[in-house]
Write a structure and sequence with these properties.
Blueprint: E1 5-14, E2 17-21, E3 26-30, E4 51-60, E5 65-69, E6 90-99, E7 102-106, E8 113-117, E9 138-147, E10 152-156, H1 182-189
Parallel strand pairs: 3-5, 8-10
Antiparallel strand pairs: 1-2, 1-4, 2-3, 4-5, 6-7, 6-9, 7-8, 9-10
Length: about 190
């Protein structure tokens, strides 16, 4: 019945979800109910033959359909985010999607994704994120914002990079004006 949890075996995969043999009846886990992560295809989460635990969402006896969910048996990532992450923390993230205004990165298997705004990719001007990052690649990122109410996280690639070595100019070896007296040229510019 609705709300119950049970185990089954993935019997088939389609673009829109995965079918589960519950032991005499098949149910469907819709793509949106497989994981808290964004899922493009069920094969990213399950394979035929996998034993899975599911929650029954709906039972339609007339149409002989059972709606199932895997993600509802897992904690919603944004409810526990403060237990794992804080602003300023350096994390490892995998780029999941590129858009004109930035790149999305998934931090872990729990489904937490954040946005690296295009202005946080590099100190240099960036026309499109693909100039700096690629989908599927992993990077060290700094968490710069967490908004649990809106379920948003701001990330920065450029702030996670080690600080660049600053070049210090020694006044005693200032450039010469060509007369050969660099020290005098330095003194006269002070």
């Amino acid at each position: 019945k609705e709300g119950d949890s049970c185990e089954g075996v993935i019997s088939n995969i389609a673009d829109f979800g995965a079918f589960v043999d519950l032991g005499g009846a098949d149910g469907l886990i819709h793509l949106s109910e497989l994981s808290w992560n964004r899922v493009n295809h069920p094969s990213e989460v399950v394979r035929v033959g996998d034993r899975v635990k599911v929650q029954i969402l709906s039972v339609d006896l007339d149409r002989k359909r059972i709606g199932l969910s895997m993600r509802r048996l897992m904690p919603e990532p944004w409810e526990i985010i403060n237990e794992y992450y804080e602003v300023g923390q350096i994390v490892r993230g995998r780029i999941t999607k590129l858009v004109n205004f930035g790149a999305f990165a998934r931090l872990d298997e729990n489904g937490v994704e954040g946005l690296i705004h295009i202005s946080e990719l590099s100190d240099q001007r960036v026309a499109h994120p693909r100039e700096v990052v690629k989908e599927g690649e992993e990077y060290d990122l700094r968490i710069i914002r967490i908004d649990t109410d809106k379920r948003r996280m701001g990330l920065s690639l450029k702030q996670a990079l080690p600080p660049e070595q600053k070049v210090e100019i020694d006044w005693q070896i200032a450039p010469s004006d060509g007369n050969g007296d660099a020290e005098e040229d330095a003194d006269s510019s002070i």
